[in-house]
Amino acid sequence: MGRITINDVAKEASVSKSTVSQFLNNRYEYMSEETRGKIAKAIEKLNYQPNIVARSLKQKSTKTIGVIVANIVHTFSTHIINQLEMHFHEQGFNIMVCNAGDEPKREREHIEMLIAKQVDGIIAFPTGGNIDLYKRLYESRFPIVFIDRKIDSLPIPSVLLDNLLASSMAVDAFVKKGYKQIAIITNSIDQPITPRIERLAGFKEALEKQGLPITEQHIKAVPVDEVQETIEMLMKDIKPDAILAANDRVLIELLRYVRKKGLKIPQDLGVIGIDEVPYASFFEPPISTIEQPADQIALQASTILVKQISNQYESNSQSIYRFDPLLNERQSY
Amino acid sequence: MGRITINDVAKEASVSKSTVSQFLNNRYEYMSEETRGKIAKAIEKLNYQPNIVARSLKQKSTKTIGVIVANIVHTFSTHIINQLEMHFHEQGFNIMVCNAGDEPKREREHIEMLIAKQVDGIIAFPTGGNIDLYKRLYESRFPIVFIDRKIDSLPIPSVLLDNLLASSMAVDAFVKKGYKQIAIITNSIDQPITPRIERLAGFKEALEKQGLPITEQHIKAVPVDEVQETIEMLMKDIKPDAILAANDRVLIELLRYVRKKGLKIPQDLGVIGIDEVPYASFFEPPISTIEQPADQIALQASTILVKQISNQYESNSQSIYRFDPLLNERQSY
DNA sequence: TTGTAAGCGTTATCAT
DNA sequence: ATGATAACGCTTACAA
């Protein structure tokens, strides 16, 4: 098994290997019932499996897609991977999953490896580094779609959340309930990451629109492992009455802190998290979240990529695809 | 980019392609400083990337591993995938992730596709179907490692939790606190799945050892979407004072039910879940879990697979690798 | 309707 | 120290 080739089948069926190849590719048009049967029997008997590597070399298509996530620890990444696996599988593709761990260097290595392995396309959550590389790929018309982030200088199709709206939905929700001292916490990374930047910008904008004062003290961007101490400072300092957790990781830290201090949500602190989390609905109290429509995002991205691969994609169309967040109103604010 | 081959490099550097190949494979031994420089420059200039598909065809190694999970919805699967990606990446392999969705048919298609794509090895959470296929692979000495499940008739290395111990740890913990009416709920699938069977068996055994009566009414195996109604019946029926959720999906349903009914944990109901969940530590109350050492399991599995691939694996050694669960004692019982 | 032969981009063997 | 040449297993004109 695996060892046996089209030649063995040809011999077994006493036909030429090109005939077998025809058979394999379902080109029965000019094939006699008899040969067809012989070949089928030979394949069955030898338990033949075509070598797709050889086929790929010839056809210049591997039917595999590279997926590079910025950081696999986010539930969003995982969710997207699951959905991509499903959609691409339906389209006859396998996916190679790579994790950049927020490091541009690892991202670059992954991209180069994927290209070397001749994947038919790449879906990436770009770290923000490697713009040059993506530029080269774009210029050579290599199929790429970005998810979650975009690179402003490149018209690569990017499928992402309307982050400004996400933040403002949260702020508006808070304000409606009477919260006045609203803070936002996001985890920082070296690179300027689209969702972080946009969520921060949206937050400021929304506060402004609501006529609330904006101070830098209400806006914190720190590494995940510093989130707790940051909240601690925040609580001592400006005493916010509501906090927006900019993603699922931050939300966890926030909830840990709340429990550690015995705070009551929403009485002592209003909480909203961006990114839906599995426990939100049965938490005490249920946590309100701003959900990214990950399913739609993954579907859109895979659809565009498949179109690019089959040259069906109109590159003159818009390159940014925004999806509206969904507010899951629960009882945490 | 991608379009240019070793021939182009050879021409650019005015050497033969075999020399370039030597260079690419770091066989500098008999190579003059000069040619080395020329080739390096040409590669740089042309931005050459070797075609690994062609290399794979020749070398019969793709440096990629197929990973087939039974069902990607479990946090355990996701956790394992993340760890495998990391370990294999360190060893120079990429992973192709496939989801069988608990369907043997899909599993079979995935295996066949992976074999056709000439992966160097497979890590699988076998659904329980396709024993024949695995048998063939095993007999042809194809590198495979199972995670989470085993197939009794096949000596394929299998890395999994000591499920008996996991159940008994839970039962013992419950008993120690005075619980008497202990039930277990697992989600059923058609096939006889190792962890389910073993956790159920371990549960019965532990009850026996504790001198508690065993009735089939305390043991429920139903599809996830029927878990809630099953608990409902259970509560009306035998009124358990403690429930062991056999995995993370069941735990979620259980917690949903508890919240819906306004039950108090642990006063009204003791709860332990097998599988660690992200929210366990800051839930109200913190949920006790029996954690699978996913990191160790993934490491062990990848290590064995890599050994098999490089013929370093002693197949006469044991084929079942058990890992001890870890009880995270929190306040839910 | 089926077979021959070239070619995909490498690596590997063997000359030179 | 470097180059010709034959594989690797398949597809695809083109011949027959």
UniProtKB/TrEMBL annotation, chains A, B:
The keyword Transferase does not apply. SMART domains: HTH_LACI. PROSITE patterns: HTH_LACI_1, HTH_LACI_2. Residues 4-59 form the HTH lacI-type domain. Keywords: DNA-binding, Transcription, Transcription regulation. It comes from the Bacteria. CDD domains: HTH_LacI, PBP1_EndR-like. The keyword Transcription applies. The lineage of its organism: Bacteria, Bacillati, Bacillota, Bacilli, Bacillales. It comes from Ureibacillus yapensis. Transmembrane segments: none annotated. GO terms for molecular function: DNA-binding transcription factor activity; transcription cis-regulatory region binding. This is LacI family transcriptional regulator.
